[in-house]
Write a structure and sequence with these properties.
There is one protein chain. Helices cover 29% and strands 18% of the residues. It is of the alpha/beta class. The chain has an eight-stranded mixed beta sheet with strand order 2-1-8-7-3-4-6-5, with helices on one face. Helix 5 links the parallel strand 7 and strand 8. Helix 2 packs antiparallel against helix 3.
């Protein structure tokens, strides 16, 4: 994905790469921060540091669950942690979602067998933890079944789509873009249409890594 962005002469954004639930590494290269959101919408760094402390409770809950459930919940909890981490360490300006402007999270390279099934079973419910922010989580992937989980009071609406939208008029730009454990050697052109790259590089991009 980084190579595709650079080959087309676009500015590289910050890539967050993680290897487990509580560790986060910022790519150490020539990446520059994405354009900041409007200052009036951004929460201060102190706010996000307070939310980061709340993850101690979730970490304990996570450790006490059965391995199968712990694994299934890790997708959502990883995403929730990284969102707070970005704000707490000042890596980029982060906001909370509102009813008028939900937080937009794009998950690329999804499949019916993994991300859609996790959403269907309720394992993505913690994605807006700990603040219960209003969020729209869009799962992108080839051949995904039509899927919608409406916001029923928890703050999260989940939908599926074939590929990231290229038309800025069709959707808000993403606040965070995520790729969960991409398959080595995958054709990223099949995941991200070239015309959509300009929208994606406006946001921080998080890529989770397979365990060695």
């Amino acid at each position: 994905l980084r190579q595709m962005i650079r080959e087309r002469g676009l500015n590289a954004t910050r890539f967050i790469e993680k290897s487990d639930f509580v560790d986060c590494l910022l790519a150490q290269d020539s990446c520059i921060p994405p354009p900041a959101i409007e200052e009036k919408d951004a929460k201060p760094q102190s706010y996000w540091k307070e939310q980061l402390r709340a993850f101690k409770d979730l970490e304990t809950q996570h450790q006490n669950q059965r391995p199968k459930n712990r694994r299934a919940y890790s997708w959502a909890r990883c995403l929730a942690y990284e969102r707070v981490y970005l704000g707490a360490f000042g890596l980029c300006a982060m906001r909370e979602g509102t009813a008028e402007s939900p937080l937009q999270i794009w998950v690329l390279g999804c499949s019916n067998e993994v991300e859609v099934s996790l959403a269907d079973a309720g394992f993505l419910d913690d994605v807006n933890w700990p603040t219960s922010t209003v969020m729209e989580l869009t799962l992108f992937g080839e051949g995904l079944r039509e899927f919608l989980i409406p916001d029923e009071g928890g703050g999260v609406r989940v939908t599926t789509a074939g590929r990231p939208h290229c038309d800025a008029g069709r959707t808000r730009r993403p606040d965070l873009v995520v790729m969960f454990m991409p398959t080595p050697g995958a054709m990223l052109e099949n995941i991200v249409p070239p015309a959509a790259l300009e929208r994606i590089v406006e946001a921080p991009i998080m890529v989770t890594l397979r365990a060695a």
